[in-house]
Design a protein that fits this description.
The protein is about 0% helix and about 45% strand. It is an all-beta fold. It has one domain: OB fold (Dihydrolipoamide Acetyltransferase, E2P). Strands 1, 2, 3, 4, 5 and 6 form a 6-stranded antiparallel sheet that branches. A hairpin with a 6-residue loop joins strand 3 and strand 4.
């Protein structure tokens, strides 16, 4: 049977960055939480494993990010678990705070006051 892994993306603000956790087997992971920017924001916990743990060194709480991740699932003692394995984190470029074009004088914007139906 062939398996296929799909990549997903998530955008939001970093809420929590946990410390690196090492296990006796040599496995390492670092978890973090991103709050989505939706009508009903969600706090989503993701993790970086092994060499990807260093990705989080460049970020701090409050940073706007875009995270690329894979869904990973497994069964342990009859219980099922889903993990979101982050493999890329990028800082989001700050966008304009309004719908008006930047650096354009108001008088050159379309919709002159005399043309207004109100």
């Amino acid at each position: 049977m062939e398996t296929q892994s799909s990549a997903y993306e998530l955008e939001g603000k970093v809420k929590v960055i946990e410390d690196l956790r090492s296990f006796p087997s040599g496995f390492t992971k670092r978890e973090f939480v991103v709050t989505t920017e939706e009508r009903y924001p969600q706090d989503i916990k993701l993790e970086c494993v092994k060499e990807r743990c260093d990705l989080l060194n460049e970020y701090q709480v409050g940073d706007e990010v875009k995270v690329s991740f894979n869904l990973r699932g497994n069964e342990y003692n009859g219980r099922y678990f889903v993990n979101l394995h982050a493999w890329r984190i990028e800082k989001k470029a700050p966008g304009p705070s309004s719908d008006a074009p930047e650096n354009v004088p108001e008088e050159s914007l379309p919709g002159d006051a005399e043309d207004s139906p109100f």
